[in-house]
Design brief:
alpha/beta, Immunoglobulin-like, 679 residues, six-stranded antiparallel sheet
Length: 679
């Protein structure tokens, strides 16, 4: 095998940028490893099977090894080999016989599974954005729609068959029109970075459908591209451009693109997992190791390993990744999986952690939306409300309180009211905005909305773990029969509770998030952990969609956008001699006392909203009436006149007069308005 380095064809090159980059005259390679004694580049033929050359990177600048190959062109296939000690007890796992993937690879070719070594390809990344820019929509006007690219359109007969389940399908006018009708301003995509299927799944004929097992942090997953892209003469470029075309189409419709990113762990897993990249290049730098036994990993992610984000090169890797997706792919923000890990220091979570500060001051990233899943599985990992001021956070306390209030009957009025008003007990005292709270009742993780009111227990046998996986405490109910039923009374009750749940999300203060398929009555047949189900169980069943529920969601989103009963700022409930802007009442029309707030038996509730800081011509007052009980409830209101805006007991909106003593049906929310000011 010829050594290009020995023949003098390799020059020293540059230590930045990391990865392999073509400059028009050749390719520069730069690889980080603080503990390697030598780093080599292996070049392969076009098939990726035959190694045709190997050379050592000739220069080391600090902890970056680099070299320049004149005349090399895009399309070059390469891998890395790192020399150094095999000393797991000291944290080192070097083995030069193993081919490793460049962490900064822009395209991955072949062997992208737990059984093979993937190669990286040098790319030509030019693309004409035709004037497209990040939308930077106000967070106060944001309505998130969390979705899986494949599952969203795989069964939609209105999408051409060759596009279904792809980036191109999400860009299709049928998809865009559906999102616009729902009032969606941002799609929150489950991971689209190229991921790995774990061996225990492939052995069962399953896959990691959700994709929280990243292999290629800079690579759109080709499994989410259309068949047209895979048939192209340059499939890798076609996949990237299909993703970019999707972003352009969504931006043209006023819809932002948020990516779910996984920087808490990599796909290499525990010390027993495959060595694919980071572990073989510099295990002791990339990962957090057990201080007592360096052969083992700290596992705050619950996925076998934890990235060492306190190391400056690992921090650089994350920042390079984020800048790539914003600068080169035009995404509008990120949802950070298990985000507490991003800010773990020597003494636990630190809201001033280096990565969080780096994002805040970066000129490219400072204005994008950052959403935290504010927990991990490590000690002290639950940190809801602790992230910096400009971050949004998934609010599981909203999710659980709203479920308990409407479904199980275990929630109090006080807890429900706090969640309805932006979780002020969590965010207001920290100087945060109500929009900091991402309000949801369903997401990819857990029951679908339909299943939430159809199953009291999880049904996860299809996952191959004897029904041991998934959450056990779901605050769900079947209302009489587990699963599907033809009983009209049960179906009516389920439908009312679904509409009440949706209204609670859309009308509450904060940033609402809909789980994809909530508006279609999608079911996963009781599976509340469908992470490995790339099939009809997870794919939205468009032919069986509940059109009345979809119409209700469309109307609800429009009314929220037009009227916004609970606004974008904190309200004054008791105010220095001024009238309260929120008046909380019992159904009898009297203010709640301390015991009323905690009464678990009587939970019906009314709030009168009077935004006195509006101009007189714009001033409105609203009444939101909540009846989670099994029987209708009469409410006594302050003097009107009142008009009905929305009644969740009906499948369609209405606009009619209401008495000062309206009747609210069981398991329902009634929204009223009056434009005459307070009496």
């Amino acid at each position: 095998m010829r050594s290009l380095a020995q023949s003098g064809e390799l020059t020293t090159g540059y230590a930045y940028p990391l990865g392999a980059h073509h400059d028009g005259a050749g390719v520069n390679f730069a690889v980080f490893s603080a503990h390697a004694s030598r780093v080599e580049i292996s070049l392969f033929d076009e098939s990726g099977q035959r190694e045709r050359a190997r050379f050592a990177l000739p220069e080391r600048s600090g902890d970056v090894w680099h070299g320049y190959l004149p005349g090399a062109q895009p399309g070059l296939l390469y891998g890395l080999r790192a020399h150094g000690p095999w000393a797991p007890d000291s944290g080192h796992r070097f083995d030069a016989s193993m081919l490793l993937l460049d962490p900064h690879a822009r395209e991955i070719v072949g062997g992208a599974d737990a059984h093979g070594a993937p190669r990286a390809r040098v790319i030509d990344d030019r693309y004409d954005w035709a004037g497209d820019r990040l939308l930077r929509r106000s967070v106060d006007d944001t309505l998130l729609y969390e979705m899986h690219v494949r599952g969203f359109s795989r069964r939609n007969p209105r999408i051409p068959e060759n596009l279904r389940g792809s980036y191109a399908a999400l860009a299709h006018p049928e998809s865009v029109q559906h999102l616009q009708a729902l009032g969606v301003t941002a799609v929150s995509l489950l991971p689209v970075q190229q991921s790995l299927d774990e061996r225990h799944l492939t052995e069962q004929g399953l896959v990691n459908y959700w994709g929280y097992n990243t292999l290629g942090f800079f690579c759109p997953d080709p499994r989410l591209a259309s068949s047209d892209a895979h048939r192209a003469s340059d499939p890798g470029r076609a996949v990237r451009n299909e993703f970019r075309d999707m972003v352009r189409a969504l931006h043209a419709a006023g819809i932002e693109v948020i990516l779910d990113v996984v920087f808490n762990h990599t796909c290499e897993g525990s010390e027993y997992g495959p060595t694919l990249s980071w572990r073989g290049l510099d295990n002791a730098s990339w990962y957090r190791l057990d201080p007592i036994d360096a052969a083992r990993y700290i596992n705050d992610s619950g996925c076998g390993n934890t990235l060492n984000l306190r190391h400056p090169r690992v921090l650089q890797f994350v920042m390079d990744t984020l800048r790539y997706w914003v600068g080169e792919m035009h995404v509008d923000g990120f949802r950070f999986d298990l985000a507490t890990i991003l800010a773990r220091g020597d003494h636990g979570f630190d809201a001033r952690a280096t990565l969080l500060q780096a994002i805040a001051q970066d000129p490219l990233l400072a204005g994008v939306k950052c959403i935290a899943e504010p927990w991990d599985v490590g000690p002290g990992g639950y940190r809801l409300g602790a992230f910096p001021a400009m971050w949004l956070e998934w609010n599981d306390r909203f999710r659980d309180a709203v479920r308990r209030y409407w479904i199980t009957g275990h929630g109090s009025r006080g807890e429900f009211a706090r969640r309805l008003c932006g979780s002020s007990d969590i965010f207001a005292s920290a100087g945060r905005h109500p929009a900091s709270s991402v309000n949801y009742v369903t997401s990819h993780d857990g029951f679908s909305l339909r299943d939430l009111v159809s199953y009291a227990q999880r049904h996860n046998l299809a996952n191959g773990e004897d029904n041991r996986d998934g959450h056990t405490d779901n605050h769900s109910d079947n209302f009489g029969i587990e699963g599907d039923t033809a009983d009209p009374l049960i179906l009516q009750r389920r439908a009312r509770v679904q509409r009440a749940l949706l209204a609670s999300v859309l009308l509450a203060q904060g940033t609402p998030m809909l789980g994809a398929g909530s508006e279609l009555d999608h079911t996963q047949r009781g599976n509340n952990n469908a992470y490995c189900q790339d099939n009809d169980l997870s794919w939205l069943d468009w032919p069986q969609a509940d059109e009345s529920l979809r119409d209700f969601c469309t109307t609800l989103a429009r009314l929220r956008r037009e009227l916004r009963p609970l606004g974008a700022r904190w309200y004054r409930e008791v105010g220095n001699g001024e009238p309260a802007e929120l008046l909380w009442l019992r159904p009898q029309g009297t203010p709640l006392n301390e015991d009323d707030w905690h009464d678990g038996a009587e939970r019906a509730l009314c709030v009168i909203v009077d935004d006195q800081r509006r101009a007189a011509a714009e001033r409105r007052r609203f009444a939101l009436l909540f009846n989670p009980h099994d029987q209708p409830q009469t409410f006594r209101l302050p003097r009107g006149p009142w008009r009905i805006v929305l009644d969740t007991a009906a499948s369609a909106a209405t606009d009619s007069a209401a008495l000062d003593t309206p009747l609210v049906f069981a398991h329902s929310l009634l929204w009223l308005r009056s434009d005459t000011g307070m009496p």
